[in-house]
Amino acid sequence: MYSKRFAGLLSFVGASQFLIFMLICEALYPGYSMSNNMISDLGIGSTAGFFNSSIIVLGLLITLSAITFHSFHRNKIFTILLILTGMGAMGVGLFPENMRPYHEIFAGITFVFGGLSEILSFALLRFPMSIAVIFLGGLTLGSLALFVLGIHLGLGPGGMERMIVYPVILWGASFGGYLMASERR
Question: What is the pLDDT of residues 66-77, one digit of tens each?
Fold first, then answer.
């Protein structure tokens, strides 16, 4: 039970700190537009140190959470997907967007495996949380498909990217909270 709660704490802290630092960086970045700028624009320029450190911490904590939680649930596929998500996030911070093609590769890994992790986590959760994670994962992967096709739904490229990323962050925080508070399934 301890490993489950600790895994939840790692996931919650990772997602929460990243969301907070991302918002701070958006406020500090000169002329930043949530609609026109990509999230990773925050990883270059005056906010690079905060942003890149924060996303590396996110990736590290998600990876550690996956490894810690595995001792409780033993679902190898979920663990592998979540580790890939965490490693992808670390790669995004280690290779900012001006380091192509590595940045795009790691961002793609984070987006795809993050969405798949969200959906697969339904098997580890009770109703109604199991339904909520399917919704979040579907939103991530559906938005990713639209983004790749260049369909931004009037949100601009930055806004559409947020439709991919925000559900993953919300999932990380809510999944972590669920693990910290829930009884053994």
Answer: 999 888 787 899
